[in-house]
Amino acid sequence: MDRKKILVTGGAGFIGGNFVQYMVNKYPQYDIYNLDVLTYAGDLTKHRNIEKKENYHFIKADIINREEIIPLFENEKFDYVAHFAAESHVDRSIKEPEIFVQTNVLGTQVLLDAVKQTGVTKFVHVSTDEVYGELDFDPTTFFTEDTPLQPNSPYSASKASSDFLVRAYHETYGLPVNITRCSNNYGPFHFPEKLIPLTISRVLNEEKVPVYGNGKNIRDWLHVLDHCAAIDLVLQEGVNGEVYNVGGHNERTNLEVVKTIISTLGKSEELIEFVTDRLGHDKRYAIDPTKLERLGWKPTYTFETGIAQTIQWYLDNKWWWEQIISGEYKNYFNKQYSLK
To answer: What is the three-class DSSP state of 26?
Structure first.
């Protein structure tokens, strides 16, 4: 039997990194290629436990570099592509929107051109519920795959643009693609600038935890391993051209999330510090994942079980997030991989 080759872009990031580990461990008969340019959020220390496995391969490359990406596809003949690589921090997109357009839009176009030239069985573009804009606080309203795209930040606008490109390459060239749009992820190896890991690390260090505005903005939280299972299913069973929403049925206000973490760690809510609200801060996100559930997926984590597991993981793995905060992780590539 031929060994399938699966390319994961952005595999040194949070969600892509968890997906790489999920696939390497679940499918020893597949070759998993982790492609990442290693920006500030790209961390290879998380893969210490799999980097010596025969079916794991790392490629340092930038998806916007056409001269590098096209020959790579021609040489390797990938069977599947799971495209996670993206700039994803909303605050950074407000300050430096150009970087988000370059990576998220132009980088996606380069990958689509590579797929068009070489052919793959499936290209899954991992997007976000933020492309839909925001919902009001009516608990009966949800994003569906038919909700119009109304992005409100430079980040979500760049992701919506890449979604449209993926759709266009399917409609125009017949590329076998799917788009997935997920709610907020959390879990192991989450970069410490994001709400949940930032809160955990700050609380453990008895430091103030910043909360935007009044903290009443609502997000639907999805455990990253449930997301990995969803992408795996779509990669192999998704109907070409279809969009699938991935949600956790776990709506919480940002303030509720922070208070849950503080309570679990036995600390005082006096650590909470309300700060000036983010520009264009969306009120609420909530996803209806019925379409994906009909394909055969269901989340296995409730927010209660997931957040408890995540907090315990951060308690057990201080080695990881402390070297992320210190910046030591940036040296790992040069130490472990020979530069050619």
So the answer is: helix
Active-site positions read 129-130, 155
Amino acid at 226: D
**Residue 318, SS3 per DSSP:** helix
Report if pTM > 0.90.
yes
Please tell me the total count of domains within the chain.
1
Q: How many CB atoms lie within 10 A of CB 279?
A: 10
- At residue 29, the 3 state secondary structure works out as coil
Domain that holds residue 46: 5-187+223-250+286-302+330-336
pLDDT tens-place string over residues 156-204: 999 999 999 999 999 999 999 999 999 999 999 998 888 999 999 999 9
Contact yes or no for 321/192 (Cβ under 8 A): yes
Query: Using an 8 Å Cβ cutoff, are 287 and 143 in contact?
Result: yes
Q: Within a domain: residue 275?
A: no
Cα–Cα distance measured from residue 83 to residue 80, given in angstroms and rounded to the nearest whole number: 10
313 and 305 Cβ atoms separated by less than 8 Å: no
Q: What DSSP character marks residue 192? A: T
